[in-house]
Amino acid sequence: MNDMRPMERKVDTKEIKFDCRNVQVYYGDTQAIKNVDVKLEDRTVTAFIGPSGCGKSTFLRCLNRMNDTIDICRVEGNLLLDGEDIYDRRVDPVQLRAKVGMVFQKPNPFPKSIYDNIAYGPRIHGLARNKADLDDIVEKSLRRGAIWDEVKDRLDSPGTGLSGGQQQRLCIARAVATEPEVLLMDEPCSALDPIATAQVEELIDELRENFSVVIVTHSMQQAARVSQKTAFFHLGSLVEFGETGAIFTNPKDPRTESYITGRIG
Amino acid sequence: MTDASLHGAAPRKGRSIHQIDARTRRRNATEARFKACGIAAIAIGLFFLVVLAVAIIRNGTPAFTRTVVEVNFTLTQAQFDEAESQLFKTKAYSGFFNSALADQLTQQGIEVAFDEASIERLMGKVGNAIREHYTAHPGDLDAPVTFNLPTSSRVDGYFNGRVKRETLQDSRFLEATDLDLADQLKAAGIIKSEFNWPFITGADSGVDNPGGAGIGASVVGSFFMMLVVLGLSLPIGVAASIYLEEFAPQNWITDLIEVNISNLAAVPSIVFGILGLAVFIQFMHLPQSAPLVGGLVLTLMTLPTIIISTRASLKSVPPSIRDAALGVGASKMQAVFHHVLPLAMPGILTGTIIGLAQALGETAPLLLIGMVGFVARGYPDGFLDGFVEPNSAMPAQIYTWAARADQAFYDKAWGGIIILLIFLLTMNIIAIILRRRFERRW
Amino acid sequence: MPIFWILLIVLAIAAIGYVAGRARALASAGGDIRALHSLPSYYGWNAAIKAMVPAFLLIIVWLIVQPIYVSSVVSGMLSDGAIPNSSSRGLVMAEVRRVAEGLDNAVAAGVIGEDAARSARADVIDITQRLKDAGQIVTSQITQPVLRAAQHFRIMHSTGNMMMTVAALALAVLGALWAIRENRAEFRARNIVETSVRILLISAASIAILTTIGIVLSLVFNTLEFFRLYPASDFFFGLTWSPSFSGRGGSSQLGVLPLLWGTFYISVVALAVAVPIGLFSAIYLSEYASPRVRAIAKPMLEVLAGIPTIVYGLFALLTVGPLLLSVFGADGLGWMKAGTAVMTAGLVMGVMLIPFVSSLSDDIINAVPQSMRDGSYGLGATKSETIRQVVLPAALPGIVGAILLAASRAIGETMIVVLGAGAAARLSLNPFEAMTTVTAKIVSQLTGDADFASPEALVAFALGMTLFVLTLGLNILALYIVRKYREQYE
User: Which among B28, A114, B32, A145 has a CA at the least distance from the CA of C380?
Assistant: First the structure.
């Protein structure tokens, strides 16, 4: 199931989670994303790579409509989550984001206790019937975030007091606590040191078992380490998408090759 | 660490995002309520602004019109001499006036019965005004003169809608029959409304003469105060800001100055009045009620504001400009005075004008140093006298009128507010234009 | 205006010094400005500064010291017998000053010759009569010692002024000459000038400290004087405020508690209006409003802050008061007796504080990092959930600081309460009753006809002290909280 054998042809062994067709994103008059078509699989880590400003983060933020918070941003095309268009009029972004969680570049724990950080999502979505339930969810989430052992004795201390790597794992645990189906990660390790990065990468690999994970990264090594599928963006277009192994060993597009060999970017 | 027993914190599948669940609906309702609270808060704030504006305009406009009796009048030299020889001189002039009025009415073919007492109730003692005119302008004797004599404040109020016929109680000031007379005179075009120039140009009048009260003298008082404030607070404020922003070393003295400035910005204005009273008047024996002292107090009060805004505009000049000047061998002082200060000047001027506008509207400290309204009895004799002669200022004048607890003076107070706000508005518009015109983005 | 002329002459000497100093420096360099250490104008300024600064400093010191010295000498001349029992040395000295001033004016008006004004044999009755004729205000018959003291006062005064003129002008000339002598090509004139400018800048900045010192001293001295005449414990713990109008009568009761209660009550009403409206406005403007709405609504609200308080005072007295009276007064619910009341002043003050609270809170809410909001939205929180559970808790310290600043404003506000709250000091819970505040009483005690030496007037300084300490405490606390808050997110 999680074999790394390069495949010549895409085989639909896994359910398609996100089906994106002909996606265009505009910031005011400038087009940030042009004609992106991509299918993201369930229980797979997909990496978005590309030079700065190529639109990979913008595209990621379309997947849970975080772009809605930017007034001048406009999205066209179809983005289907389990066959349902997420930009449909009927969709409430609040409900969508409960299904598609997000982890950000800089760890951003709330200025609350570790417990309340994790409990925040379950509370607003009403996932716990009582206190015991909530305790259970918090513990499971922290375990899932691979941080339980480090914080179990100080759940009441503020989340901002943790180290950078711990904070980021706390944020991942916080995202997991709302029981999403897809986890979006926007350069989750760029603010972390190598050891913390390794811990988070290990965590991402474990999360693959249950979640569909989409990760934006600047580091090609990281993409190669954690992802099964890789999408290469350049100047707002999706240049190449395929098995990670194939992209890194045998890129089809010359731009991809230039990027991974370090000539552009 | 990841094991199958973790049921929570795992995907909950099968939720359609096209169906809004009950909880989300509830949450969205809360959201809408919360947002409505915000809109309501803004609306309440703006509502108060509108109410305030309406109240000012509605109550203030009557002060700008006055009701006058227009009578054509020819006084011969003989009549003048005769009146001057009498014991009750003004009474004689009143007599002339009454007969002239009667003549004018007969000429126009209007039958109105009036007696001296009712004319006196309508217009006060007219004789005095007429006598003053002819003693000042003897050349007008034997020639027709058109007099516009103000009516009493109650008659003025009657035509402004302040005094109602239904609620009028006969008194020695005004009787219901007088209103009939006033109506008839109005119909005949003898009583008319005109723009109240004396209100703009005049000085404060006594408690018993609201009709004659004007704001002109206190406008002049405010003007001289603002000259003092501008002349002191701009250079001192700029100098202090330059020091703090460009030269001050990081030490406890600088910290002390900074703490002092931010605290002084929040000290109640009346405390500055106490300071002015104790230091400038009690200790330094500067003249009481003088615009100079008012200006000094307001300078101390506005300095923190001006320093804060000046520092902000100095800060907005990028360090690269300083580096460039230092790089060609300018001294630090030259870099600041030749390059940074001119670039920051529009911002500094904007801040200063806003500070001045604040000072212009300040009342409480002025009351303590004696610049109350009734001091403003006339214009200063000369330019330098303007600083030291007792005078009032616009807001203090308005306060004095408001404190007289007389509806006619309330009108004056509202009218004074319109004048004050016109000045403030002008200053703020100038500040906005300056900002728009010279604003520089780095 | 002799001082004015001295100043002009000193300025003229400085101008001459500027020209001469500049010329001398150029001459010493043989007319080649490249041989000079500094630009020629700096040499000129060197001379001008050395002419002006010492002379001006001398004048300032002289003007402060001379009156004190003259007063003490003249006061020493007055024997104890010259002071009536009902009076005090200070009052007699005031009389002396008035007579001296009267003599000055009379001489200036030509009613009395300078000789007569100075003559030790001048007839007291005659002088008094002449002063009265000249329109100079002389309270009563001048006594012999007072007239002698006044004459002496005048003579010392004019001698002093003469000496000051001579000394100041001499100093100016000497300074200019000294600087001109210094001005040679290698002289570092720019450094001198820049140091002087720097000192000037420092003194400008120190005015903030001087102002605070001035405030504290003027409050402390007069407050101590008040406590000498009126027991401090009665002031701080007295439950009654009823100053007698007779002046120095002992019947005044000057307890501050009713005033503090009125201040507190009105401030609470004001904050109850301003905080919810201001806070919700800030939340809406910073989190919900489109840039266009924000660009219109924010300045509109801030107009409320730019309106002078006298306008609000009149609005309270003549619009809000009667309006409330028509609802709660005898015709309505019957709770209110007159238009001036705690409610009237509090409501209007609340309106005044709305923009204050909203713009401070707006700044503080905007300082909460966007990443915090993103984190919450990313978990599927609605905007209001994000605001209430993430943004506001994060901004809480700053908002508390803003509210404290608003409270300090409310406590120190004067015109609204003078016009809108009424004049009666009372301890009551009914918000529709007239009450009065510390600030209102400062105004009424100091604008009346009361003698400045009476406890009824001096109590204003004790009230001012109370007010100053209260607001200073609030301000320092608030500024500290806000600064700590800002550091957290910087």
Answer: B28
Whole-prediction pTM value? 0.85
Class of domain B216-438: mainly alpha
Q: In angstroms, rounded to a whole number, what is the distance separating the alpha carbons of residues A204 and A215?
A: 9
Rounded CA-CA distance B88/B77 in Å is 18
The CATH code of the domain at A16-260 is 3.40.50.300
HSE-CB of B305 using CA atoms within 13 angstroms? 22
Say whether residue B32 is in contact with chain A using an 8 A CB cutoff. Answer: no
What is the number of CB-based contacts under 8 A between chain A and chain C? 72
d(CA C474, CA C468) in angstroms, rounded, equals: 10
In terms of domains, do C274 and C421 share one?
A: yes
Judged by a CB distance cut-off of 8 A, whether residue B261 touches chain C is yes
Are C206 and B257 an interchain contact pair (Cβ–Cβ within 8 Å)?
A: yes
Return the number of other C-beta atoms located less than 10 Å from residue A221's C-beta. 10
SS3 C156: helix
Chain C residue with Cα closest to B372:
C447
Q: Which domain holds residue C324?
A: 253-488
DSSP B332-364: HHHHIIIIIHHHHHHHHHHHHHHHHHHHHT--H
Residue whose tokens read 């500027």: C18
pLDDT of residue B4: 41
Mutate to test the interface with B, among A92, A94, A199 (most CBs of B within 10 A): A92
C313 and C164 within one domain:
no
Residue B1 contacts A, CB cutoff 8 Å: yes
Q: How many angstroms separate the CA atoms of C391 and C411, rounded? A: 29
Provide the 10 A C-beta neighbour count for residue C306. Answer: 17
Question: Per the CB < 8 Å rule, is C439 touching B268?
Answer: yes
pLDDT in tens, B295-329: 999 999 999 999 999 999 999 999 999 999 999 98
Partners of A98 on chain C (C-beta within 8 Å) are 379-380
**Interface residues on A facing C, Cβ-Cβ cutoff 8 A:** 64, 66, 69, 71, 94-99, 101-104, 106, 108-112, 120-121, 124-125, 171, 174-175, 178, 184
Q: Is residue C172 part of a domain?
A: yes
Domain count, chain C: 2
- The strands making up B144-150's β-sheet, listed across from edge to edge, are B144-150, B65-74, B191-195
| A127 has pLDDT over 60 | yes
Shortest alpha-carbon distance between residue C361 and chain A (Å) = 18
Q: Which of C8, C45, C196, C201 would you mutate first to test chain B, the one with the most B CBs within 10 A?
A: C201
Chains that touch A (3 or more CB pairs under 8 A): B, C
Q: Each residue of B194-250: pLDDT tens digit?
A: 888 888 888 888 777 787 888 999 999 999 999 999 999 999 999 999 999 999 898
The answer to whether B213 and B299 are in contact (CB under 8 A) is: no
Q: Which ipTM score applies to this complex?
A: 0.88
Q: Please identify every stretch of chain C with a pLDDT value under 50, giving residue numbers as ranges.
A: 1
